[in-house]
Amino acid sequence: MTDTNVTTFEREAGFGDYVALLKPRVMSLVVFTALVGLLVAPVAVHPVVALSSIVFIAVGAGASGALNMWWDADIDAVMRRTSRRPIPAGRVAPDEALAIGVALSGLSVTLLALAANLLAAGLLAFTIFFYAVVYSMWLKRWTPQNIVIGGAAGAFPPVIGWAVATGGVSVEAVLMFALIFMWTPPHFWALALFMRGDYDAAGVPMLTVTHGRRVTRNHILAYTVLLVPVALGLGLTGIGGPVYLATALVMNALFLSGAVTVWRRDETAAEADGYRAEKRLFRVSLYYLFAHFSALLADAVLRAYVPGLW
Fold first, then answer.
1. Cβ(26)–Cβ(286) below 8 Å
2. Domain positions in the chain
3. Residue 108 burial by CB count (10 A; 0-12/13-18/19+): exposed, middle or buried?
């Protein structure tokens, strides 16, 4: 848990520090997948409703980021990757981050309920709670399955976007959720393979720390194998199409090939070449979701402007 005495304050916080507190890179993925979920839904949404809903979902994502940074400031302070974040670096006070996170959470959920519907607002509220409480406060420090279960938080945005448009949840929304949910473990475990020292230092029970890199490699391959049919299955629903199926075939072939390569490696060889294969798999994973959701959007555009194409 956050210790308000972890650091002394270097300087007064600037605008960029408050933006960083909201985890803008994570927010950008949330916004994009939520937008795609909204736009590919079979119900047209008024542009004002759509834009305001996406803004409120983004605010909710930022609130989750602020609450996560507040709680994890002690961990962030000892990890190289996160030590310069606003709280451990002494630019934002923990209590201030907590207040921002709570205020933005309430604001985003309330405004989404007013702009769209109660189901979308309820899903956003649950997502914030899941990420800030279930994942950050409970799972992350307790179990090596933290990223598996906690991945649900990042998988909800397209479902929220779909709910904004339709007022419900369907098989397409569930499969978009499943795509992100199954992608999350191999994505983060690939990172953990070459960043294990950070998690060791912070005492975070990532799979690489509790069970070792060999078990982690096995899990990466297993989850990637399970991910492939989910990704292809989404292409066979009403929101799929030729662009998505072609993209899914290419991206899943690359991802699976990378996972097999990582699985075959022993630690001596991996350490000797600086974990090049693991870093390459991680880079592929960064493009994986963007490619799939961009393809869904491309097929939706083709359906709207080229009727009768399929």
1. no
2. 1-168, 170-310
3. buried
Let me know: does 56 contact 27? Beta carbons within 8 Å.
Answer: no
User: What is the CATH architecture of 1-168?
Assistant: Orthogonal Bundle (1.10)
Cα dihedral sign for 76, 77, 81, 84? positive
Say what the pTM is: 0.90
d(CA 182, CA 185): 7
The rounded distance, in Å, linking the Cα atoms of 38 and 45 is 8
Q: pLDDT tens digit string along 261-308? A: 999 998 888 888 989 999 999 999 999 999 999 999 999 999 988 876
Q: How far apart are the first and last CA of the chain?
A: 54
- Report the distance separating Cα 301 and Cα 273, nearest Å: 44
Would you state the pLDDT for residue 265? 92
Helix 157-166 / helix 146-155 crossing angle, nearest 10 deg: 30
Per-residue pLDDT tens over the stretch 61-84: 999 999 999 998 888 888 777 788
Q: What is the DSSP string of 110-155?
A: HHHHHHS-HHHHHHHHHHHHIIIIIIIIIITTT-TTHHHHHHHHHH
Q: Give the confidence band of 11 by pLDDT, cuts at 50, 70, 90.
A: low
